[in-house]
Amino acid sequence: MSSLPDIQARPDSSYPAPSFRPDIEGLRAIAVLLVIGAHFAIPGMSAGFIGVDIFFVISGYLITSILVHEQESTGKIALARFYANRLRRLFPALATMLVVSSALACKLLPEAQNLAHSEAAAMATLWVSNIYFAFADVDYFASETSSNAFLHTWSLGVEEQFYLVWPLLILVAARLAKGANLRGQVRLFTGVAIVSLAASLMASYTYPVLGFYMMPTRAWQFAAGALVWMLSRQQASRPPQTTLLSWSGAALLFAALVVIKPDTAYPGLLALLPTLGASALLLAGTGQTTQTGPRTALPGAFLALPPMQAIGRISYAWYLWHWPILIIGEYLLPIKGDIRNTVLAIGVSLLAAILTHHLVENPVRYGRSARIQNKWQIALALFAMVILNSQLLRWNTHTEKLLASTKNDVYAKAAADIPVIYQHNCDDWYQSAELKPCVYGKNDAPKTAVLLGDSIGAQWFPTLTEMHDPEQWKIIVLTKSSCPMVDEPFFYQRIGREYTECSEWRHKAVEWMQSQKVDRLFVGSAASNGFTDKQWTDGTRRFLKSLAPATKAIYLIEANPRLGFHGPSCLSKYQPQAIDEHACQGTSNDTAYAHVATLLKAVTDEPALKTFWIGTSNFVCPGGRCQAIQGKVVVFRDSQHLTGSFAASAAPYFLQQVQQYERSSQ
Prior knowledge:
Layout: H1 22-39, H2 51-74, H3 79-108, H4 111-125, H5 129-134, H6 154-177, H7 181-206, H8 208-213, H9 219-234, H10 239-259, H11 272-285, H12 298-303, H13 306-313, H14 315-332, H15 339-366, H16 374-403, H17 406-415, E1 438-440, E2 447-453, H18 455-458, H19 461-467, E3 473-479, E4 491-492, E5 497-498, H20 500-513, E6 520-524, H21 533-547, E7 554-557, H22 567-571, E8 585-587, H23 591-603, E9 611-614, H24 617-620, E10 625-627, E11 629-630, E12 633-634, H25 644-648, H26 651-665
Helix pairs in contact: 1-2, 1-13, 1-14, 2-6, 2-9, 2-11, 3-4, 3-14, 3-15, 3-16, 4-16, 6-7, 7-9, 9-11, 10-11, 14-15, 19-26, 21-23
């Protein structure tokens, strides 16, 4: 989400800014409330991230009105003044949040988590965190960006990049159009909207992460706001039009909340709903009078209510604070789903926003600093950005050194204790659908075992190498991270689209298997991919049926329960010699895994499938208790994947089950 700079509330005297619009202030409030509702998992608000779209449209509307007014009245745009005002408006509150949140994260969060937090914070000081997050998930086992305390700064990067280029484009359009400024501006805004929207739609179905985070694929929403302003300046809406526009805008926003789901590729065509909704409400506002005049449409009257105005004024600061308080707070106590803790966290973020607004934002924006020459304002802001960036990078370096210290070395190694197959490029994740069989052992070994699965299945590779004599067995690994071994299409939340590479790869794996002579086929994958019971059962049955002719026996590996938190990070809080098995443990109450395991086990009852069940739950979580460490062996390398060392210790457990099945089938 992005909280739009409060341009219109108290415009700088040097700007020919438009008159105050209470409806815009109220629309800001709607946007920030939507985003907070989505982030705090308020029921019915899962699509609240559309607040981003609303803010981008408002930003395009107001910034364009300021710049075009200045260009038309003076023949130029004072770029130094514009950039100085933007930096003075945005940076102080951002810097305050970064400093305080970084200090809290450094004090309260495990060191392993602070590597990613410090990197993102450093990027945020330079307004490029959106680019950082767009390319952050290149490593499957890297920390997911969704838990980064500074993820929310991506939208500030998008807006600042927009501010950097938009005045230049307006100047170019004015010069090219010569006397016909209006026509040139409309062409510019329309052209930007068309090209950017086309790029956004293409990205949403190919690489949605880029479409979501990058400024060029969001520029069409800014341009939409600009076009609304160009339309509104020609002729204000009459009361009947105002009413229709107001209710249409409100209906479009409501429709977006209902229609857009967590598995929607976004931004795509559905992003038009909030964008057009915000545009309609902005256009409707031009036909309404300000504070003292009558309002003919209920949406406009609601937006002008005092509480909405108050929230709109602090929307930028509230946006800045709500996310790090949620992320850091959830490490201390459960927030999402807990009403009392949710109210507490939202209340703390609101208080922080109010204090920041009154003690930092307004004093810097309207105080003595506003009277300093523009070039010095820019120089001071850039100096502060560099200093803060350097200190955050220093935090990152300090964290790396701590993780390499004697205390944390064992846990850092555990977090990196992954099967050797990943060093051999056996797994392309979502980067391609290429099948890359990795062969271990002698090529002329008389027997062959194949391990087929996602990262949860592939984690058992050390088990197979321990339980199979390398003189007798050749082990072949086929792995695709996050690709369920279920014959069903799969929407992958992390990449924001259907995981088509998974389906293609799975089909290639089956074709490859059908050309092999396999003695033991081990199949495993996670059980938390959102399939229905029928999809799990039928999709697994179809997949196993296609594999059965290629092997003597299929061993379906139970998806182990999840720990629920990052094991090595939890253990790093203790001295190695002081840890016992009661440290960092939880109850094995993962109902999704247990339920799906029962369904998958039912598949093994079909003799034609030649499938046998390999249980793992009792080995990983004895007695229903999941522990980050058992004895001196770290069990989990994150919240769900097992360390290679622990997986290797499971060889006797696996071998016992395999031999039992083989004896019973003779």
